[in-house]
Design brief:
mainly alpha; 85% helix
Length: 163
Amino acid sequence: MIEQIANSIICWSIIALALYCYQQLFHQYLMLNQAEANNSSEHSQHEFTSILIGALPLLGLLGTIVGLLECFAGIASQGANSQLMSSGISDALLTTQLGLVCAVPGWLLQSWVRAQVQAKDRLQAENTVINSDNKASNAQNKPTIATTKNDAANTDYSAVEAA
């Protein structure tokens, strides 16, 4: 099986793409702990990673088609040989399996990272609302500063004395 993977360019493509996707997901997870605000480039990076993860099983399907075509080409040139057919079908199914084995954990990791991002965004939104409510209530409790002599005579200093 290792030899089949090592000899297949499609298997190498699946593995390389899966490693890149996992690296991007890990990077997105690490960025959750940073104090940076979410911006459009982070959102586009999430979408790009999502597309690449979705391409993994499609590459597996491409490998299946290529393997079956090689199997049928061998049958056409050498006749129906059970060893040739089983080898070709084995190669074909290996790429499908590899694509799915790499894609399913990627989808799971991606949904977990998205849930973490949404929880962080929700927490930031709640903190923003609480902070703005606190600022509004603090602004209502502050005494007005007299700007003219008439304002100084009319200013209610009971709020200042109470504080």
